Hints:
With 104 residues, the protein is mostly helical. The protein has a domain at 26-81: Cytochrome Bc1 Complex, Chain D, domain 2 (Orthogonal Bundle). Helix content is 28%, strand content 0%. The protein has helices at 37-45, 47-50, 66-77, 83-86. It starts with 36 loop residues before the first helix and ends in an 18-residue tail after the last helix. The model is unreliable at 4-17 (pLDDT under 50). Residues 22-24, 26, 29, 40, 43-44, 47, 51, 54-57, 72, 76 line the site of protoporphyrin IX containing FE.
Amino acid sequence: MGPGGPPGGGPGGRGPGGPGGRAPDLGKVGDDAEHTVEWLAAFVRDPKSQKADARMPAFGAEKINDADLQALAEYLASLKSDPEKAAGEAPTGDEPPGDAKPGN
Ligand code: HEM
């Protein structure tokens, strides 16, 4: 008679960008022109260095090294709301017209 619910989930949910969330949706964090790779790297390293009232915890060198931080910042900067710029793997639907049947 147990509920038998699936594991995982947990408080907070997983939907990004929902209202009332604690942290912002990073799925399009690269849209903001201010969010350069340098800014993002500096923010993750020490949020208060970029936003004096930031609540996000700092990620010091013991948490992420410079190379990984750089790669992370480059990835974050690439996150755009424009799916064409972000993905670049959408199907084109650009097939050649090779299916013409001979006249009947
Ligand atoms: C690898 C982990 C994380 C990354 C890459 C990351 C990245 C970011 C970035 C880039 C922003 C700036 C968004 C903007 O200004 O538009 C941000 C903001 C924020 N993040 Fe994170 N974050 C991480 C972990 C966390 C954690 C663990 C928390 C909380 C426990 C958190 C809480 C916040 C909050 C509250 C903000 C809004 C600004 C502030 O009040 O600090 N983040 N995060």
